[in-house]
Design goal:
The chain has 188 residues and is mainly alpha-helical. It has helices spanning 3-25, 35-41, 46-62, 76-86, 89-102, 149-152, 156-163, 169-177, and strands at residues 107-113, 119-125, 136-142. 49% of the residues lie in helices and 11% in strands. It has a three-stranded antiparallel β-sheet with strand order 2-1-3. The structure holds fe (ii) ion. The site of fe (ii) ion (FE2) has 7 residues, from helix 1.
Length: 188
Amino acid sequence: MSQETIEFHYGKHHQAYIDNLNGLIEGTDLAELPIEEVIVKAEPGPIFNNSAQAYNHSFYWQCLTTPQGESNAPSGKLAQAIDEAFTDFATFKTQFSEMASKHFGSGWAWLLVGKSGKLEMLAMHDAGTPIQDGLKPLLAVDVWEHAYYIDYRNKRPDYLAAIWQIIDWQFVESQYDATAPSSLMLPE
Ligand SMILES: [Fe+2]
């Protein structure tokens, strides 16, 4: 991922969502709430779109790190859960990349803890975020064109093939550890 992509994506796109959101909620009851609560309380429209995009991008940046090579992979409990849900890590990567690459239009590809407590992958449109459905995100991949157009032009699959080398699995694991079954309150 080039410096130019980061400068535009982080410095301009992400910044615009934050500036827009701050402008929209200034002086309202939402202004002092954590972003997750703003997302849940927002009606469909500009406040939802900008708060969810602000959150999704912050999450996405934390999922990324410096290039780790082809062998970059999760370990421990998360690796085990990925094997259980998707057979093995290679199959997970193939399925996730395919889902993200075929997602029509703008949106996000997520690995999350589903309602059953098992790992699931889900593509969501536009500002869609697992937070709005009370689900716990583990990994976010931005599939808006602005995420890859500078480096890969129209070739979204190439962006998705390369991104596995810069996923920060330690961050993803830390999100999963925070959702251990004992602390996860699930409805019967
Ligand atoms: Fe983005």
